[in-house]
Design goal:
The chain is α+β, with helices and mostly antiparallel strands. It contains six helices and 18 strands. The strands form five sheets. A seven-stranded antiparallel sheet has the order 3-4-5-12-7-10-14, covered by helices on one side. A four-stranded antiparallel sheet has the order 15-16-17-18, with no helix packed on it. It has a three-stranded antiparallel sheet with strand order 9-8-11, with no helix packed on it. The two termini are about 35 Å apart.
């Protein structure tokens, strides 16, 4: 026997606004303590709010002081939300896409300390993607390079400082929404110099033993600088830095796209694809 949902259908609209009726129902259930196994705000709720330009706190306050859909919509419009057409997105397709994404709740935890966290979101021969957090002042490895793979970083929150090049001469302060790509033979180091916490996705393409190194410190494709022969790798100019809410990058062994709602990493010519929710 299938139990019907206490919430309006996923495709229900309110004066053209997608998902809003269902989100109103969940918000009222959360206030009443009857949410059950449902989640509020879920990733679809958060995307809806982002399209509306309204914070979760603002929406919750509106729910607390209103009783009808019409009152909720009036208060949202008083905040200056965009038209239903401008706020539209395919909520059902987004719900389906979420089922294919990687989640920290299902990741393999490597390090869980106050000063840092590291977890493997996905790993394969072609690509390993991890999620990490550093508190203020926490440092990654000293200046180093990789001979056979690319090391890339997509900043989720906070700001990470990178020192790139033969002597770390290229300094990049990368805020949230920045992709920093260090291709093979380009030296780099990184640390949290500014934010209370910085979180990021780390991309190793191909893996070349990185996931195994995280698990048991087995040496992999990484060399401290200067190298034993005194050389210091290639120019810092070969590193790529891309910023923006929505952009695409392709090169150095992988492709990366983000639309502000998800980040997707893939390996051209393969079926390898990792998608991560940003809202």
């Amino acid at each position: 026997m299938t139990t019907s949902s206490p919430f309006r259908p996923m495709d229900a609209t309110l004066d053209g606004y997608v998902w809003l009726p269902r989100m109103i129902d969940k918000a009222r259930a959360a206030r009443a303590g009857t949410l059950g196994d449902a989640v509020h705000p879920c990733p679809v709720d958060r995307r809806t709010l982002k399209h509306l330009g309204v914070s979760f706190e603002e929406f919750s306050a509106i729910i607390a002081r209103t009783e009808t859909d019409e009152q909720v919509l009036a208060e949202l419009r008083a905040l200056g939300i965009p038209s239903a057409q401008d706020a539209w997105f395919d909520a059902l397709a987004w719900e389906d896409a979420l089922q294919e994404m990687v989640w920290r709740s299902e990741a393999e935890s490597i390090t869980d300390r106050e000063e840092r966290e590291v977890m493997i979101l996905s790993t394969s021969e072609d690509l390993t993607v991890t999620w990490s957090r550093y508190e203020h002042g926490e440092r990654g490895p000293d200046l180093h390079l990789h001979r056979r793979h690319t090391d890339a970083f997509y900043i989720l929150t906070g700001t990470m400082r990178f020192e790139i090049g033969e002597h770390g001469e290229r300094v990049v302060d990368a805020p949230a929404g920045t992709l920093v790509v260090a291709p093979a033979l380009v030296g780099h180091s990184f640390h949290n110099a500014e934010a209370d916490d910085v979180t990021w996705l780390n991309i190793h393409a191909p893996d070349v033993g990185f996931a195994t190194f995280l698990r048991d410190t087995t040496p992999f494709d990484s060399d401290d600088m200067p190298l034993p022969d005194g050389s210091r790798g290639l120019s810092a100019d070969l590193a790529t830095v891309v910023r923006g809410e929505a952009f695409a990058y392709g090169g150095a062994g992988f492709a990366f796209t983000t639309d502000g709602f998800r980040a997707e990493v893939s390996v051209p010519g393969t079926d390898t694809r990792v998608s991560y929710c940003l809202v």
